[in-house]
Amino acid sequence: MNRAPSIVVDKLMKRFDTFTAVKQVSFQIHAGEIFGLLGPNGSGKSTIIRMLCGLLTPSSGSATVVGFDIARHAEEVREHIGYMSQKFSLYNDLTALENLQFFAGLFGVKGSALDERIAWALKMAGLAGSERLLTGELSGGWKQRLALGSAVLHRPQVLFLDEPTAGVDPLSRGHFWELIHQMSREGVTILVTTHYMDEAEYCNRLALINQGLIVAMGTPTEIKHLAIKGTLWLVECNPLGRALAVVKQAPGVIDASVFGAALHVSVDASRQPLTELPTFLASHEVRVDRIELISPSLEDAFVSLTGDRTFSDESAQ
Predict the structure, then answer these.
(1) In sequence order, what are the beta bridge partners of 267?
(2) Binning pLDDT at 50, 70 and 90, where does residue 1 land?
(3) How far is CA 58 from CA 24, 36, 50, 62, in A?
(4) Cβ contacts of residue 238 below 8 Å, gap of 6+?
(5) pLDDT of residue 229
């Protein structure tokens, strides 16, 4: 992978009247890298992407995309990028082929390249032989792959994906990410926003964002190890509310959060939770039904770093 940065962001900030949506974020993304912005709705992810696409002017700070300043050379930036949002942007009353032809015209794709790129997009979307179908009649997964094909007809160096699989079924999401990795292998730099934890695991690196701030950055594995101290245990117990209230007082417990119908409890590595936790909780009238050592997830990391349960609840929906 070419390690030269395609995107450089330095103390980027965006204010809307008295509200600051993005608070001096800084990061770099290398050519061919899949970089994820992970956070709850309203955390600033989409605002960052819109600034990098030249659609919003930063309040302060700076950024370049493939060497072009986003504030001073927005038109040049847009010539070198592809963009796809969670809101389906193609025309439902046109066929798949007509949509591709329309967007190819907007991007200036002509001649032999036009036929080649449209054929590639139809194959990628799984619509080869079905290009005369009305776009409005396609399934959600097919629509998103068709939208992706439309966004990259001009072979952009950088691709921005703003929650591209929101509302798409898990199987279609998996197929979509296979296409993303294929583009990455071909050298396309990809910045994707998501609040799906399983999707975040597909990224080479992540920035966790909460309330406009980057709270952690690194590979998914690095972030999990950064956030979770000691060992992590799944504790199924009853009543759950009482258990959460008292478990943080147990010897060696670092932190605890509710995950579904159980607790995730981080414990000092020198302790023996299999015997100590059930005994401690029983002394506080809490019955432990199951306890086992687990690997930390990105949800665990986010909750540990921010104390914000909203993100975990959203991603589980």
Answers:
(1) 231, 253
(2) very low
(3) 10, 20, 10, 7
(4) 286, 287, 289
(5) 86
Q: Hunting for tokens 């009238």 — which residue is that?
A: 285
> What's the CA gap between 109 and 153, in Å, rounded?
7
Inter-residue contact 224 to 296 (CB < 8 Å): yes
Residue for token pair 């432990």: 288
For the whole model, what pTM was predicted?
Answer: 0.85
The pairing of strands 189-194 and 34-38 is parallel
Beta strands across the sheet bearing 213-218: 81-85, 158-162, 189-194, 34-38, 205-210, 213-218
Say how many CA atoms lie within 13 Å of 4 toward its Cβ. Answer: 9
Residue reference for tokens 């956070």: 39
Helices within the chain (DSSP H only)? 45-52, 74-79, 96-107, 111-124, 140-151, 170-185, 197-200, 220-227, 240-247, 273-282, 298-306, 310-315
Q: What is the DSSP letter of 166?
A: T
Please provide the average confidence, as pLDDT, over all residues in the chain. Answer: 90
Per the CB < 8 A criterion, the answer to whether 227 and 301 are in contact is yes
Which tokens sit at 31?
């050519």
Q: What is the dihedral of CA 49, 50, 53, 58, to 10 degrees?
A: -100
* Residues 208, 297: Cα–Cα separation, whole Å: 13
Share of residues in the chain with pLDDT > 90 (%): 65
How confident is the model at residue 316, as a pLDDT? Answer: 47
